[in-house]
Amino acid sequence: MLMMSFNDRLDLVVNLPGVLHVVTLLAGTGPMVLRASVHGMVVNVAQSLCTTLDIQGETLRAVRTQLTEMTSTKVWRLDVVA
Questions:
Q1: How many domains does the chain fold into?
Q2: How far apart are CA 43 and CA 48, in angstroms?
Q3: Per-residue confidence of the chain (82 residues) as pLDDT tens digits?
Q4: Fewer Cβ neighbours under 10 Å: the N or C end of the chain?
Q5: Is residue 81 part of a domain?
Q6: Which residue range(s) make up the domain with 31?
């Protein structure tokens, strides 16, 4: 995840399928620490995509809205499994 946290398109392209596979398998399961880690991975991937890809206009606003929603306190209520 550290490799994908910075502006490096190659690491993002190489590791994104594996990370999304892990997130899909583990989303909403396990103890709170596991769910928090998966949530952190999703936020890191989204931020990495925003800094790596050339996103502008309405798409950029939509992505920023999603990132704001992902980091809100509503999502951090990890005791509720959606």
A1: 1
A2: 8
A3: 555 555 566 677 777 888 888 888 888 788 888 888 888 888 887 877 777 777 788 888 888 888 888 877 776 665 555 4
A4: C
A5: no
A6: 3-70
Report residue 20 as tokens.
């999304």
**Position 75 in a domain:** no
Distance CA 57, CA 69 (A): 19
Distance CA 11, CA 73 (A): 30
Q: Identify whether 24 is part of a domain.
A: yes
Coil vs helix vs strand at 5: helix
Burial (0-12, 13-18, 19+ Cβ within 10 Å), 56: exposed
Token pair for 45: 């991937």
Predicted structure pTM score: 0.67
